[in-house]
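Support reply, case 0932

Customer input (verbatim):
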Amino acid sequence: MTHETPHRSGFACLVGRPNVGKSTLTNALVGDKVAIMSARPQTTRHTIRGIVHREDAQIVLVDTPGLHRPRTLLGERLNALVSDTLSEVDVVAFCLPADQKIGPGDKYIAAQLAPLMEGRRAVPVVAVVTKSDLVDRGRLAEHLMAVDQLARSVDRDWSAIVPVSAKGGYQVAELADVLVAHLPEGPDLYPGGELTDEPEETMIAELVREAALEGVRDELPHSLAVVVEEIVEREGSGDAEKGRPPLLDVRVNLFVERESQKGIIIGKGGARLREVGSAAREGIEKLLGTRIYLDLHVKVAKDWQRDPKQLQRLGF
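Our regenerated output:
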């Protein structure tokens, strides 16, 4: 008599300091681009979920903003979002990049995770050593031992330690197996084919934000908020009989905190903003599956990160 493997489904959350490869790993696990990737810390602002569909399981990945000691009201809201998320998941993947020594930020996160890892409703935490391709074997072995010590420093044990390289796909499937093992038995939580449950507006805003941050000096990441004003079908632009989809007008506002930052995004004679538009348009057309006209406007919302009213208006 054959025993069929039970189908499992549930939520896995990726945590780690800003810029440790969480979004790249989310995309590698899902096999498509759902979380924005940027070489700038703090680019993920929303709990973007990627959905991994397998014959035997469905993992809903919750990609959180990087945990950090908050310095602004925005920082505090982001941290609250992370801790709320953590208490509701089945397994946590704590990302620790192989090319960086364990630092105060990692210790801070380990201390935040420790209480979750005990008691009746303990959440298993898997230590994921990202960017493993960037170091040699000796250095990787040292780092794995340091990661093991980090758990002991808070009097806990990781459920597993898995080295991965999201870029080369090294051990990404193995990591998925480890996460699946910690999920409860159950049916799919989302229909097949869906890669994320984020609303389209959020995805569009993230694509614009990613394009705007590309190659810009360091003063912008925290100061940039993107809001999709409207998506409307242009009258008379489509022709169903000829199989021509309608053109969508997508209007997006980019908010910065100071007048000087406005110039950085717009660039000389608007050149920079045009580049941002072209780069983002490509991703948005792929997402919506139709042609779009992207209308970008840059506005100043003075010190919005510290102002509760403005934070609310910008969706935080």
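We compared this against your earlier run and they match. Two observations from our side: Confidence is low (pLDDT under 50) at residues 36-46. Residues 202 and 228 are 8 Å apart (CA to CA). Please reopen the case if you see a mismatch on your end.
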